């Protein structure tokens, strides 16, 4: 049975790989599980058919037989649990890999998204210049700690895991901000993720959607 | 073996149960697992001994034998995986319960925290009055959808699960904002969570820390 995911028909990131379907595509490529993609317009995302899959009206969703999931974190975890490779066998190492997924989504991503949203929505506001340094300071607080933890290791905790996949994708959102480049080991970490063949396949697949549209 | 969690010696919420150790305490009470608490000053949280447990220098952490975890989501999931009661046995229902944990932390919590932070940090800024309605609109967007999904059900997906635990705790952060009261079914949902004996025990335990300090 081939799972079906949803993605933007016209991604607002113009194919840069920032939309959250990229996380799920990458996970599926790592475990070499074929999948189908159903593309959705912004209008279709708010219609009952899609809201029945994800009440928040977002992408990606994941349909695999009777199971319907939303939330990229939950979908990646489900894929990782079913196919090895993305989670260690050792129980404690497995719990730590899942911990890094939560750290990426709950601790590192929110200030990064807050800055991206301000760039899009508040650029013309009189307070923009004054708030931006505060938003960037919040991001640096997280990156300082993460950089210190990573040190000169390749991955966050031993072998590449779903925790690295999620952290790389979250840091990848800093592209163009100049912030990641302040931390050479984090920049190299993201580049290591991007160099994985599964990442390339996933990236090219989502980029094709943009090029065709 | 009794697990050890960390919590604020002087919680900035003055014992209102908003600190993230409350989530872990509640999960431990639901599965009736005894635990110990190590209280930390703000200074101690930034020292090497604590940073070795959580590189981001936050509470809660969770030590259980050889395993050390941080991130309340990861800790609650670990507890839920080991003790039943907080996750359904059926594999698909289990995946959906975990999905609701991610939805609480990744989709519902960020705009709520953003508003709370603005109230604390930006109240004196000239843009405060203008930004607050935008922040509240972002929260309402999530609550509209969540309220519609919940309808008149008791819990998000069948029996009470770790997904409800996390969602109730995230919505609980809206206390005092007036926003939750705009959605009577969500307010009743949070009240249902608060009425659980395990919630009460956890709440009283964290409140005792404040009353003693």
TrEMBL record, chains A, B:
PANTHER family in alphabetical order: GLUTATHIONE S-TRANSFERASE GSTA, GLUTATHIONE S-TRANSFERASE-RELATED
A Pfam family reported for this protein in Swiss-Prot or TrEMBL: GST_N
Residue ranges occupied by any GST N-terminal domain in the UniProt entry: 8-87
Signal peptide (UniProt feature, chain positions): none
Protein name: Glutathione S-transferase family protein
Organism annotation: Lysobacter yangpyeongensis
Listed InterPro entries: Glutathione-S-Trfase_C-like, Glutathione-S-Trfase_C_sf, Glutathione_S-Trfase, Glutathione_S-Trfase_N, Thioredoxin-like_sf
Domain GST C-terminal intervals: 90-213
